[in-house]
Specification:
The structure is a single chain. The chain is built from eight helices and two strands; from the N terminus they run αββααααααα. The protein is mostly helical and 209 residues long. It has a domain of 131 residues. Strands 1-2 form a two-stranded antiparallel ribbon. β1 and β2 form a beta hairpin. α5 packs parallel to α6. The chain starts with a helix and ends in a 9-residue tail after the last helix.
Length: 209
């Protein structure tokens, strides 16, 4: 990467660290803590949440007919999500070892923790966890695809992209044939940052079990 890109990547990491610090601060603001990847609210917060929970019949009464009628369409996407999850998991389990690509930790992307929120009723929790699963699967698949692309074709696009995946910053510039031929084997195996980030992302807080 160029010096400018190195600088931009460094700034991105600083922003990520700042965001994580802000998320940690929210634990105190809303009376919960995360220990060993488990969320625990204080007893006072749980009591307050229970008071704010909306009963199922009121939940239905407050929802419009059109919203309720589209629910089956939304839930019909569950099967494709599950199939995609299984297929991509099978793909990386069988192929990443051969390619020498670090496997994507599925649990880093599919986070089902909203059922711990006492102010949500059963249906709200179910809907929230479904959304978390669907978006988590897509993020997980995107990372698997990004690492695959780094191995097979780490070349930036000439056309403007709406958004970039996590590995795009390591790709060769479009049209840079010389560097591509000289360094392709190096770039397709450069995942040192992945193993470092995944090691540091583990929650350092000890469990209070």
């Amino acid at each position: 990467m160029s010096d400018k890109l190195d600088s931009l990547v460094g700034k991105m990491r600083e922003l990520e660290n700042e965001m994580m610090h802000e998320l940690r601060r929210k634990e105190a603001d809303f009376f919960y803590e995360v220990r060993a990847k488990k969320v625990r609210f204080t007893k006072e917060a749980m009591v307050q949440h229970a008071k704010l929970s909306k009963r199922i019949h009121r939940y239905f009464l407050d929802s419009s007919f059109l919203v309720l009628s589209t629910a089956p369409i939304i839930w019909s996407c569950l099967l494709p999500f599950v199939i995609l999850d299984l297929v991509v998991s099978f793909y990386q389990a069988t192929c990443f070892g051969i390619y020498g690509i670090p496997k994507v930790r599925r649990t880093d992307y599919i986070l089902l923790d909203r059922s711990r929120l006492g102010y949500l009723n059963f249906l709200e929790k179910l809907n929230c966890e479904y959304c978390a699963y669907g978006n988590g699967v897509l993020a997980y698949v995107s990372e698997v695809a990004a690492r695959t692309e780094q191995y097979w074709c780490p070349i930036k696009h000439a056309l403007r992209m709406k958004s970039m995946h996590s590995r795009y910053k390591f790709f060769f510039d479009y049209g840079d044939a010389d560097h591509y031929r000289k360094e392709i084997e190096k770039v397709r195996r450069s995942f040192e940052d992945v193993t470092k980030d995944e090691a540091s992302s583990s929650d350092p807080k000890p469990s209070k079990e």
